[in-house]
Amino acid sequence: MTSILNPPTNGEDMSTASAALAAADLEKTFYSTDPPTQVLSHIDLEVATGEFLAVMGASGSGKSTLLYCLSGMDKPTGGSVRLGGRELTGLSDGEMSRVRLTEMGFIFQQAYFLSNLSVRDNILLPALKATPKDKAGAGARIDAMLERFGIAHVADHGITQVSGGQLQRASICRALATEPSVLFADEPTGALNSAMTTEVMDALSGVHTEGTTIMMVTHDPGCAARADRVVYLRDGGVVDALAMGTWTPGEATRREDELLSWLRGHGF
Ligand SMILES: Nc1ncnc2c1ncn2[C@@H]1O[C@H](COP(=O)(O)OP(=O)(O)OP(=O)(O)O)[C@@H](O)[C@H]1O
Ligand SMILES: [Mg+2]
Fold first, then answer.
1. Among candidates 255, 250, 203, 205, which has minimal Cα distance to 225?
2. Which of 26, 28, 170, 184 could join 79 via S-S bond, C-beta 3.0 to 4.6 A?
């Protein structure tokens, strides 16, 4: 099946089974309100293995709800979500927690770190929970990541003793410490200034280059321009997609201009 809402295939066969993440006819209605609030409807969306997908749309269009439903943080009220071909809807809460812990990584606008632990221990904690028998392996992996993201020198600092950009790079380390198959990011630069945004997006671009599948919600066209593909949400439906191919620093301005003009066409 060919659709602009699916990843570009370069002529190769790309079935749902080979996608890292796939939603089919996804629906989310909140019944806690009177009348019920339908937030997502009829969403068909695939994220290819290794793809960097950005999700954009006006405030309230359902971006976070989509991310929560795809990552099992919230339960869809209809349709299907598959992770690496495995159906997630219908898993028990315990099974879903395990999938989130071992196969998914999360980055949010705020880091949500524990204030009584050092940066390094905050990263180590979920990794040890995921693989309790591999303390040495997890520690070595995390030290290598701290080095790579330029925060090894603040690893033993408390979380109030580092900058916002350093803290968000630590969030990326925490998200990657369990070697997830998909990294979910909801407004990862939403609380950062432009220099820190570049730091964090450089880190995410590096993670993508190494093959991690990323689904990122953002309001920032400069951040979305890093993605291979951008989908646009309106009133809880995916209405368009822009395939941009692989990001390179030299193409940053051209890509952002292309994306901005596409977004303007959607009234963004
Ligand atoms: N628990 C809930 N109960 C009822 N309605 C909800 C609930 N959570 C979200 N909504 C509604 O769903 C819609 C989409 O919310 P969502 O947070 O997904 O939007 P968003 O696109 O991420 O917005 P923003 O860009 O502001 O973060 C909004 O109208 C919101 O009010
Ligand atoms: Mg949101």
1. 255
2. 26
